[in-house]
Sequence to fold (284 residues):
Amino acid sequence: METLVEKANILIEALPYIKKFRGKEVLIKYGGAAMDNPEIRHNVIEDLVFMNYVGIKPILIHGGGPAITENLKRKGIQTKFVNGLRVTDQETIDVVNQTLAELNKSIVHDINQLGARAIGLSGHDNEILNVTKHQANGDVGFVGDVESVNIMPVKELTEFNIIPAIYPLGIDSKGETYNVNADEAAAKIAVAMNVQKILILTNVHGIMRNAEDENSLISSLHVDEVEGLIENKVITAGMIPKVNSAITALQGGVKKAHIIDGRIKHSLLLEVFTDKGIGTEIII
Fold:
């Protein structure tokens, strides 16, 4: 009997959050190694479907770095990175496009199988991400910086409670396809859509003061502290674009930004529907 009461209490705890976010859009950025684990992927998709059923409007942005690297390897194409950006020649952009399109189709299928409705969108084909060629790190090929976001293809879906699943390719003024960093794409779309929250899934607990100490999680971080943590090598490598994505979203008017561990079962639900939440909240 006590267990049943506990379950009921969990539902009651979720109630104010369901009321708060019902009818509102939230953006989830999902990618990296977490996409390759079937159990994690199933849990993430279940969370999206749950949100959809209680009236929240999730928008999913996904990358696919490990799958892209694997497919390039199979074709004998060497992967090179400059400051975290994949050097992308014509042969590489073709593989990126094909890989992300296949992943997208698979994710959409899984969402639909669980009873929600999702439609896949390409930032390029649907002209969502308008980009210019990235120049800051020298010539890295077909890598684009997002200049503007066309929200119409996304809005047309969320208005009918359909989950948009977007993969981050962009288009320039000449119609060329560009690879776009998924964290940057997520932030820019979150701002353009004026979502209530951006949730960035990763494969660590959040931002840790000491990577070796699981108890060193920084649960709340002010944007003014970020630069010092990067200088002191607390925030490093792949966490830097995620933190920058959260800051871009907050500075653009998004109310909440969270970096959470996608490996934790139902991490999205724990973050959105519980008082304590998980991971690192970045505040402004």
